[in-house]
Each structure stands twice: as structure tokens, then as C-alpha cells.
Request: fold
Amino acid sequence: ERAMPLDRLDDYLRDLQTYQRVRDDVYRFTDVSVERAIRVAREGLATLGESELLMSALCHALIGAEWIGMDQDLSEAEACVATIFERWPDSVYGHLLQGAITYRRGRPREALASLDHARQVRPNDPDLLIYCSTCYWMLGQSAPAHAAIEQALAVDPLNPVNWNMSGLIRLFAGDLEGSIADLRRGAALGDETPMCQATLALALMVADRDDEAGRVFEQVATRFPSDPYVQLWRLVWHARRGDAQRVRDGFTKEVIALVRVDEGCTYVAAAALALIGEIEPAIRCLEVMIRDRGLIAYPYFSTIDPFLAKVRADERGQAVMREMEARYRESLATSSA
Reply:
């Protein structure tokens, strides 16, 4: 494209600055940071005027609010996408955000159609790449998930969420030491992102390093005592200690809201419940994870996960695992067709 006039360049740079500020707050994944992201995006639109970048920033923030259980209604985010396509037909941001919303609705395979369309135009967009990697991870396809997040890290190496996602992908592929190394990077960069600390602690427990996981949880719980991510993921640690009542009491309304909308949290809830012998509630969580959230990474859940052994030994749990396997193999067949 020809260089844009200087006045348009100034406008773009102002919009980009606001977009990046919103993006940074969304990726902290706390109530305070996401509320601030929405506020900044709305103020940007009111002050600077409507633009593709600023509408995209608002949509990102609204998706973030749903992601952490603050608001389970994506209708305003969908309206943002409709506005983007109306004003800027075939917008790459529109396709990216449409894919993100579809993923948030628990349809990662369908989301990849929109994301791949955008990726052809903007192959190095870090937000696009992390959504692609997340969708492949959910489908249990570690190779394309890893390729996408490696590309995201190449263009955005200081984003803690990229390291967190890379660690999750390695964890689900069985590379425990590689996972922990990446998650440590994410936790170091994301000291204001409790999700990164919680994910590191979970990986340490998968590697049977519970004492270290306990120290990580103690530190992050001290800094973020009311964060539902920390509260929920720490329940697995308490469950491994045999503290069943603390696990049962830990399912507050804020934690339950998060379990309903985040596939990783649905898994963690199932893990904590299974460890204390609450097999039926654990199975219900897995059904939500598979059917509503779309997390069907069968290779991990069938052979690597250490928390769901009691579910896998249960007849009803075995039926759920067979359902996951069938969906996983169907997804593989569709991807290779």
C-alpha cells in the first residue's frame, strides 16, 4: 500500500496506542483490569471517534469480560463485529473477532475457519495467533497449536499470556519440563496476571512437585486473595491434601461463574472434585467441558492427566471419555480432509 498522509498516520497511531493499552489490560484477566479495558475502549471511541482499531479494542475487552465470568452475554461483542463489517467490509479484525466469539461459544473447530481467513492476510498478528493456538489446543492438535504459539512468541515475546499458552500446549503434549520452563517465563512476565501463576502451579502438580506448587499458590493468593482463578485452581492443591470440605466450600458463586465459561477452569473444577471422590459432579463438569466448551484434547485426558483417575475408573466416566475420544477423532478426520 502507498504511505498514508501524515494526518491519517497520526490518527492511526493514537488509535493504536489505545488499542494496545486495552489489549494489555485484557490479557491480565482480572476483574479490575478488564473493567478498565472496557472503560478505556469506550472513552477512546467517545474522544477519538469511531475507527476499526477502536471498535476492535472494545470488542476484545467485551470478550475478555465474558472470558473471566464477569458478563456471560456476548451480544454487544457481536454487535461490534457487525459494525466493523458494515463499516469496513471483509475486515481482518472482524474475522479475527468473529473467530474469537465463536471460540468463546465453545466451537473451536468452527472458529478456525474465521481465524484462518484472517491469518491469510495478517499471518503475524499476535492476537490472531494466540486464538488459533488456543483452538488447536482445545481440539488436542498439539503440532499446529505449538506452531501458532511459537509464531506468536516470535512477534510478541513479552506477552505473558503467550508463554502461558505455550506452557499449556507443552503440558497437554506431555512435555512437563518444557511446560514448566515456559510457564515460569509467563509467571515472571505476568506478575500482574494471576492466571499465569495458577497455571504454573497446576503444571508443577502434574509433575508431582506439590510443595513448590503450594508456595506459588501461597504467594499469588496473598497478592490476589479474591481472584476466582486463584481460588479455583488452588482447590486442586487442597484436594491433593485431602481437604474435601475446603474444596466443597471453595465453589463460591464467582468460582462457579468462571467454571461455566472457561474450558480450562471447567477441567480444574472436575479435577478437584474427582480427587475428593465427588465423581458425579466431576463427570458433569467434564460433560460441560466437552459439549459446551469444546475442549476435547483426548490424548492428554486419557494418558497424561493425573487428577481424573477416579473418573476414568468409573463406568459413567468411561462413557464420557469415549465421547471425548469420538469427538477428538472426528475433529482430526475433518482437519485432514
Observations:
- Residues 1-6 have pLDDT under 50 and may be disordered.
- The two ends are 36 Å apart (CA to CA).
- DSSP finds 20 helices and no strands in the chain.
- The first helix runs from residue 6 to 26.
